Amino acid sequence: MNISTKGRYAVRIMVRLAMARDTLPQRKQDIAEAEDLSANYIEQIMLRLRAAGLVRSHRGANGGFTLERSAAGISVADILDVMEGPLHISPCLDAPRQCNRTAECVTRPIWQEAGRRLYEYFDSIKLDELARKALEIEAHNTVSFSI
């Protein structure tokens, strides 16, 4: 199982929006520059996040994107659900009829439980926690010049 680049970038972008919660909306060009991605790629990701109700777009001179709801109420699982769909660690969980051993497979419950635990882990990580950690790292890495 791999989480796609869109899924990973969507989490990073959402953390960036959570970090800027009390400022003006974040322009896609600024997000693209900060994340070293193209503005068009940011737009593709934001369209899906907006359709899912995770971000809001703002028009005008101060336009851009903000979180639709509180960062404490958005988990990594919420974002990955939008970008990846249901996370299954084995193809037999996604399409059980494709495997003729589904009914008697002794390992299928292992993959189901592992997937459940992975989802619970992603669901336990909230954007506000990630934003706080990112701001701490950013503050720690800020170069200070004094004379």
Question: What can you tell me about this protein's structure?
Answer:
The chain is mainly alpha-helical and 147 residues long. The chain has one domain (5-141): Orthogonal Bundle (Arc Repressor Mutant, subunit A). The chain is built from seven helices and two strands, in the order H-H-H-E-E-H-H-H-H. A hairpin with a 5-residue loop joins strand 1 and strand 2. The N and C termini lie far apart (52 Å). The mean pLDDT is 88.
List the helices and strands and how they pair.
Layout: H1 5-19, H2 28-35, H3 39-51, E1 55-58, E2 64-67, H4 76-84, H5 91-94, H6 108-124, H7 127-141
Antiparallel strand pairs: 1-2
Helix pairs in contact: 1-3, 1-4, 1-7, 2-3
The domain count comes to 1
**Annotated CATH architecture:** Orthogonal Bundle
Distance between termini?
Answer: 52 Å
How would you state the average pLDDT, rounded?
Answer: 88
Shape: elongated
Query: What does the radius of gyration come to?
Result: 19 Å
- What letter string, H or E per element, gives the SSE order? HHHEEHHHH
Structure characteristics:
5% strand, 147 residues, Arc Repressor Mutant, subunit A, two-stranded antiparallel sheet, mainly alpha, 55% helix
Short précis:
The chain is mainly alpha-helical and 147 residues long. The protein is 55% helix and 5% strand.
